[in-house]
From TrEMBL:
Recorded topology in the membrane: Multi-pass membrane protein
Ranges for domain ABC transporter: 406-651
Annotated compartments: Membrane
PANTHER family recorded: ATP-BINDING CASSETTE SUB-FAMILY C (PTHR24223), FI20190P1 (PTHR24223:SF415)
GO molecular function: ABC-type transporter activity; ATP binding; ATP hydrolysis activity
UniProt organism field: Cryptococcus bacillisporus CA1280
The protein's name in its UniProt record: Cadmium ion transporter
Biased composition (Polar residues): 653-675
Ranges of residues in domain ABC transmembrane type-1: 91-383, 737-989
Entry's Gene Ontology cellular component terms: membrane
Superkingdom of origin: Eukaryota
C-alpha cells in the first residue's frame, strides 16, 4: 500500500459537460461533438480540444493524516485518501447504478405480462369458447411502451454511472501520477534501493493507469450483490423452487472464476519482475545510446531485452490459458443452468408456457454476469521512506557543520532458494560491503572557499553526497547555514532551453536577465550561446541541440551560479573542460564572479588551485571501502606537514607561489562582483523569441491503413492460426443451437480464445522485437531528435489486442445469427434493418474517426509524461539539493496537462495554461464512448419497441412461442448491436498501437556491422591506411558548429 504522509496532491478533472439544456445532460451531449464533422477530423490538433468539454476544478487528494471526531490522528492509506476525496461523486454514481440495476431486474416482469397477453389473445382467437378473453389492446400497448421506457431509462442511468465512475478513475489516475512524481524526488537512499527507477517507471503507465478501469468496477462491487439478491427472489417467484437448480449450477462459476482469477493475479505479479527489468534496461540503453553504439553493445542490449521478453511470454501464455478457460466456463455453465432449470420445472408438474420460459431466460441473463463477476484487485504500491531532507538553519554559526559516519545503501541480492547452507554462508562472506565514510568532522565558515582533494576512490564525491543526504547517515548530524546549490560530477540537463536549465524553468517575469547575462559570461557560455540557433532559448536536453561534455558542465555550473544560494557544492566542475576554460571559470566565476561571496566547497584534482583556497580537506581510503578525512587546514600549513598528500603539495607549491602573489584574495568584498545593469539584446528579446523544441512526434492522420492490418496479421506467422481460429469460432456459434451440446460450446470457446491469444501474442512479440531492433540500429540523429519517453512508450499489443479481436468477431457472428433468426421468423422486419444499418454505419464512422484521432493525440501527449518523469528520476539529487521539489512537481503536472489536468501555482490554485485551458484528449475519449453508447442503445431499444408493437397489432395471428424467441433475442442482442460499433472502434484504436510500433520498424537503419561480402574469418592482424580522409559535422540545426 502506498503510505501517504506529508504534502497535498492535486489533480483536475472536468466534472460536467458544458451543457445548454437538461436533455444534453441526460443524453451526454456536448457541443464539441456537434461541431466536428467527418471531413475535418483528419487534421485534428491538440489545440482543437480546448474549451470543448468540462470545467476545471481542483481535486485535492489528502496525503497526510486525517483528524477524527475524537481529535486523534490516524495515518491514511491511499485508498482511504482517495475515497475521502471523491466520496460524494462516488455515491452519486452509486445511486445512478442502483437505478439502472433496479430497472434491469424488474423489466422481465413486463416481458412476462406482454408475452402472457399475446398467448391469451392467440388462444382466445383460435378457441373463444374454452379460453378467457385477453385484456384490451391499449393495455398491451401500454406494456410495450412501459418496457421501452424501462430499458431506455436503465441504459441512460447505466451510462451516466459509468461516465462518472470513469471520470473518478481519471481523476485518481492523474493524482496518483502526480503523487509518484513528487515522491520520486524525495526518496531516501534506502528507499531508492527497493524503489528502483525501472519499478517507478512501470508505476506510471501500469499501476496508475489501472485506476482508469478499476474505478467503475467499484460501483459493481457495491451494487451487484444487491442485484443478485433481488434477481434471485424474482426468479424463484417466476420458476418456483426449480430455479434453485440453475442457481446452484451458476454458483459454481464464482469459486471457479475466483480460483482462476487468483492464479492470473499471481502470474501477473510474477511477470512484473521482468517488466521492471525490461523497462529499466530500455531506459539505460536509450539514455546512453551513444556509448552503446561506440562500444558496440547494440547486440548485447538487443539480446538482453529479447531474453526478458521471452521470460515475459512464459507468464503471458499461462495467463492466456486461464483467461480462455474463464471464457469457456462462462459459455458453458449458463447454458447448462438454463436447461437443468426448465427440465426440473417441467418434471415437477408445472406448465412451461412461453411467458414463463422467456422471462426466466431474461432473469438468468441478468444474474449470470453478477454471479461470475469478481472484484479486481488494486495493484499494491510499496511503502517508501521520506528523506530527512537538507537541514538548513539560517542563523547557524557555520556555513557547513557535518559530523558523523555515512554509508551507501546496500543493494539487496535477488532471492535464490537454491543451494546449500554452506554455499549461502560462503556467498555471505565474500559479499562486498558498501562504501562508507567514518569520523567525519567538518566545520566551514561562511564565505570560505574549501577545496577537497584526494586520490580516486577516497570519498571526495561521497562526502558531498553525505552532506545532501544521498548517503545514509549512520550517526551524527549535517547542518547547513543557508540554502544550497549542487553541481554534480555527472551533469544533468533537462528538456528545455538553455535559459530554462540555468533558471530552473522560472517564469519569464521572475527571471533576472542582468544576473543571467553575468552568469553566461562568468561560465564562458557567451560564445556557445551566440552560436546556437535561438541563443539562450535554444532547446537542449531530451532531445534538443547536442551539447558537448564541457558545455553541459558549464550549464550545470551556471545553474548553481544563477541560484541565489548561500552554499555551493561543486563536484569536480573542471573535469570536462579545457585548461584555459577551467582557468576562466575559476577566476571569473568562483573566485571573483557570481560565486565569490558564497561558501564554496570544491572537489577537484587540480592541485594548482589549492593555494587560492581558504581551507583544504584531504581525503584518503584505507583500501577496505572506508574513507576518512586525513588532513584539514590551510594550504601553507598542510604543505609543511608530513601527511598523505605532502609530496604532491610540495611539487605544486613552487609553481603556484608566484601566481599567488599576483592574484587578488580569495574572499573579495561584495562590491567586487557587479553584474551589468542592463541585459544584452538577446535577453531583452526573450519574450519575442520562440524556443526550438525537440522534433514533434510523427502522427498519422486518417483511418488505419490496410497495410497495418496486413503487417499485424503477417506477424502471426503461418495462416493456419487464422484458419483454426475461424473454424473454432464458427463451431462455437453453431453449438448455440443445441443445448445438449453445451460441453462443445465450452470446448470450442476455449479453443477459439486460446488460439487467437497465441496468434496475437506471436504477432506482438515479432513486431516488438523488430521495432526494438530498428530503434537500436537507428542513426544517432534519430535518438537525438526523439525523447526517450516516446520510445519507451511503445505500448505492447500482447493479450489486449488479441482478445479485442476475438470479442469483435464473436459478437459479429452473434449479431449475424440474431439478424438471421429475426428475418426467418418475421421477414418483413428486414425493412426496419435498412435504416438501422445506415444509422449504425454513420454513427460508427463518426465515432471511429473522432476517437481514432483523439487516441493518436493522447498516445503522443502521454509520451511527454514518461519523458518528464524519466528526467525527474535522473536528477533527483540535483533537485533536492537546490530545493526545487515543488517546482518540478509543477513541471510534472504540466506534462499531465495533455490528458486533462490543469496546472497549479505555488499555493496549488488552478491557474490557466499558456493556451488558456488544459488539453483534453483523454477526457474527450471517455465522453465520446458514452455519447455513442446512448445513441446506439436508443436505436436498439426502438427496434425492441417496434417488435413489441408488431406483436400487439397482430396478436391474434402471432405465435407466442415464435414471438418470445425473437423478442428475447432482440432484448439480449440490444447491447450486442450497440457494442459492435464501439468494439470495432476499440480494435482500430488498438491498431494505433500497432501503427506506432510499425513506425519504429520503418526507421532508417545504420549499415550492418557485418556484410555478406565479408570473409567468414577475419585476419588477426594487418596494415591499415587512410587516404584523403576528411571529417566534418553534418549541416543540421541540431549541431553547434563552433
Amino acid at each position: 500500500m502506498f503510505s501517504v504522509g506529508g504534502m497535498d496532491v492535486f489533480a483536475v478533472t472536468h466534472d460536467t459537460v458544458h451543457l445548454e439544456t437538461i436533455t444534453d445532460e441526460v443524453s451526454l451531449s456536448t457541443p464539441s461533438l456537434h461541431q466536428k464533422r467527418e471531413g475535418n477530423l483528419k487534421g485534428l490538433k491538440n489545440r482543437d480540444l480546448i474549451k470543448q468539454y468540462g470545467k476545471k476544478k481542483a481535486l485535492k487528494v489528502l496525503e497526510g493524516q486525517m483528524t477524527i471526531e475524537d481529535r486523534n490522528l490516524y495515518d491514511m492509506s491511499l485508498i482511504r485518501a482517495m475515497y475521502s476525496t471523491v466520496c460524494l461523486k462516488w455515491w452519486i454514481a452509486i445511486i445512478m447504478k442502483s437505478c439502472a440495476a433496479a430497472l434491469q431486474v424488474t423489466y422481465p416482469l413486463i416481458t412476462h405480462q406482454l408475452i402472457d397477453q399475446l398467448t391469451t389473445a392467440h388462444a382466445y382467437h383460435n378457441d373463444p369458447a374454452n379460453n378467457p378473453p385477453p385484456k384490451s389492446v391499449v393495455y398491451s400497448f401500454g406494456l410495450a411502451f412501459a418496457l421501452f421506457a424501462m430499458v431506455q431509462a436503465s441504459s441512460l442511468f447505466s451510462y451516466q454511472a459509468l461516465q462518472k465512475g470513469s471520470v473518478i478513475g481519471f481523476r485518481m489516475r492523474g493524482a496518483l501520477i502526480d503523487l509518484i512524481g513528487s515522491k520520486s524526488v524525495k526518496l531516501s537512499p534506502k528507499a531508492k534501493v527497493e524503489m528502483t527507477s525501472g519499478k517507478m517507471m512501470t508505476m506510471v503507465p501500469a499501476d496508475a493507469s489501472f485506476l482508469d478501469f478499476s474505478a467503475p468496477m467499484t460501483l459493481d462491487l457495491v451494487m451487484q450483490p444487491v442485484q443478485i439478491v433481488v434477481g434471485l427472489g424474482l426468479l424463484i417467484w417466476t420458476l418456483r423452487y426449480s430455479a434453485l437448480v440453475g442457481l446452484a449450477v451458476l454458483a459454481l462459476v464464482g469459486p471457479l472464476q475466483s480460483f482462476m482469477f487468483a492464479v492470473m493475479v499471481r502470474i501477473s505479479q510474477s511477470q512484473l519482475t521482468y517488466i521492471d527489468a525490461r523497462v529499466r534496461l530500455l531506459s539505460e540503453a536509450i539514455a546512453s545510446i551513444r556509448a552503446v553504439k561506440l562500444f558496440a553493445y547494440v547486440s548485447f542490449f538487443s539480446n538482453k531485452v529479447t531474453e526478458l521478453r521471452k521470460k515475459e511470454l512464459v507468464f503471458l501464455k499461462k495467463n492466456g490459458f486461464y483467461r480462455a478457460s474463464m471464457n469457456a466456463t462462462m459459455a458453458f455453465i449458463p447454458t447448462l443452468a438454463d436447461v437443468l432449470t426448465f427440465i426440473t420445472y417441467g418434471l415437477t408438474g408445472h406448465s412451461l408456457t412461453p411467458a414463463i420460459i422467456f422471462s426466466g431466460l431474461q432473469y438468468f441473463n441478468v444474474l449470470k454476469t453478477p454471479i461470475a463477476f469478481l472484484p479486481m484487485c488494486f495493484t499494491a504500491i510499496s511503502d517508501v521512506l521520506m528523506p530527512e531532507g537538507v537541514n538548513v538553519q539560517e542563523d547557524a554559526r557555520w556555513a557547513v557543520n557535518v559530523k558523523g559516519d555515512f554509508e551507501f545503501e546496500k543493494v539487496n541480492e535477488s532471492k535464490n532458494d537454491n543451494g546449500s547452507a554452506e554455499t549461502k554462508k560462503e556467498q555471505a562472506k565474500i559479499e562486498e560491503k558498501p562504501f562508507r565514510l567514518e569520523d567525519i568532522d567538518l566545520r566551514i565558515p561562511k564565505g570560505a572557499l574549501v577545496c577537497i582533494v584526494g586520490r580516486v576512490g577516497s570519498g571526495k564525491s561521497a562526502l558531498l553526497s553525505g552532506m545532501i543526504n544521498e548517503m545514509r547517515q549512520m550517526e551524527g548530524y549535517s547542518v547547513f547555514g543557508g540554502s544550497v546549490s549542487y553541481v554534480p560530477q555527472q551533469t544533468w540537463i533537462h528538456s528545455g532551453s538553455v535559459g530554462d536549465n540555468i533558471t530552473f524553468s522560472a517564469k519569464k517575469e521572475e527571471i533576472d536577465f542582468a544576473r543571467l547575462n553575468a552568469v553566461l559570461d562568468a561560465c564562458a557560455l557567451r560564445a556557445d550561446v551566440q552560436a546556437m540557433p535561438d541563443g539562450d532559448l535554444t532547446n537542449v536536453g531530451d532531445k534538443g541541440l547536442l551539447l558537448s561534455g564541457g558545455q553541459r558542465q558549464r550549464v550545470s555550473l551556471a545553474r548553481a551560479a544563477y541560484a541565489q544560494s548561500s552554499i555551493v557544492l561543486l563536484d569536480d566542475p573542471f573535469s570536462a573542460v579545457d585548461a584555459h576554460v577551467a582557468h576562466h571559470i575559476f577566476e571569473k566565476c568562483i573566485v571573483s564572479g557570481p560565486l565569490a561571496c558564497r561558501t564554496r566547497i570544491l572537489v577537484t584534482h587540480h592541485l594548482a588551485l589549492l593555494p587560492r583556497a581558504d581551507w583544504v580537506v584531504v581525503m584518503e581510503s584505507d583500501g577496505h571501502k572506508v574513507g576518512r578525512m586525513a588532513q584539514m587546514g590551510r594550504y601553507d600549513d598542510l604543505r609543511r606537514q608530513q601527511g598523505p598528500f605532502g609530496s604532491p603539495l610540495n611539487e605544486v607549491g613552487s609553481a603556484t607561489r608566484q601566481s599567488r602573489a599576483h592574484t587578488p584574495t580569495s574572499t573579495p568584498t561584495m562590491t567586487s562582483f557587479k553584474p551589468p545593469t542592463s541585459p544584452p539584446k538577446e535577453c531583452r528579446e526573450y519574450e519575442k523569441k520562440t524556443s526550438q523544441g525537440p522534433m514533434e512526434e510523427d502522427r498519422q492522420t486518417g483511418s488505419i491503413p490496410w497495410s497495418i492490418y496486413a503487417t499485424y496479421l503477417s506477424a502471426m506467422g503461418t495462416p493456419m492460426w487464422s484458419l483454426l481460429f475461424g473454424s473454432l469460432l464458427i463451431l462455437t456459434q453453431g453449438n448455440n443451437i443445441y443445448a445438449g451440446l453445451g460441453v462443445g460450446i465450452g470446448l470450442f470457446t476455449f479453443g477459439a480464445s486460446y488460439t487467437m491469444f497465441l496468434a496475437g501474442l506471436r504477432s506482438s512479440y515479432t513486431l516488438y522485437a523488430r521495432a526494438w531492433e530498428h530503434v537500436m540500429k537507428a542513426p544517432t540523429k534519430c535518438h537525438d531528435q526523439t525523447p526517450s519517453g516516446r520510445i519507451i512508450n511503445i505500448e505492447m499489443l500482447d493479450d489486449r489486442m488479441a482478445f479485442s479481436w476475438e470479442t469483435l468477431l464473436v459478437n459479429g457472428l452473434s449479431a449475424i445469427g440474431t439478424f438471421g433468426l429475426i428475418l426467418y421468423s418475421y421477414p418483413w422486419l428486414g425493412l426496419a434493418f435498412i435504416p438501422l444499418a445506415i444509422f449504425y454505419y454513420i454513427a460508427g464512422s463518426y465515432y471511429r474517426q473522432t476517437c481514432r484521432e483523439i487516441k493518436r493525440i493522447n498516445s503522443i501527449t502521454r509520451s511527454r509524461i514518461y519523458s518528464s518523469f524519466g528526467e525527474q528520476l535522473a536528477s533527483s539529487a540535483v533537485i533536492r539539493a537546490f530545493g526545487k521539489q515543488s517546482a518540478f512537481q509543477r513541471r510534472m503536472q504540466d506534462a499531465i496537462i495533455a490528458e486533462g489536468v490543469s496546472k497549479f501555482d505555488s499555493r496549488f490554485k488552478v491557474v490557466p495554461t499558456s493556451t488558456g485551458t488544459a488539453q483534453q484528449a483523454y477526457i474527450l475519449t471517455l465522453v465520446i464512448q458514452r455519447w455513442l453508447g446512448v445513441r446506439l442503445d436508443l436505436t436498439s431499444n426502438l427496434l425492441i419497441l417496434l417488435i413489441a408493437i408488431f406483436g400487439v397489432i397482430f396478436r391474434d395471428a402471432v405465435n407466442a412461442s415464435s414471438f418470445g424467441v425473437v423478442f428475447s433475442y432482440a432484448l439480449s442482442a440490444a447491447a450486442l448491436f450497440s457494442s459492435l460499433v464501439s468494439l470495432y472502434a476499440q480494435v482500430e484504436m488498438e491498431m494505433n498501437n500497432a501503427e506506432r510500433i510499425i513506425h519504429y520498424i520503418s526507421l532508417p537503419a545504420e549499415p550492418p556491422a557485418i556484410l555478406a561480402s565479408d570473409p567468414k574469418i577475419w585476419p588477426s592482424h594487418g596494415p591499415s591506411s587512410k587516404t584523403y580522409l576528411s571529417d566534418t559535422l553534418p549541416r543540421h540545426p541540431g549541431f553547434s558548429r563552433n
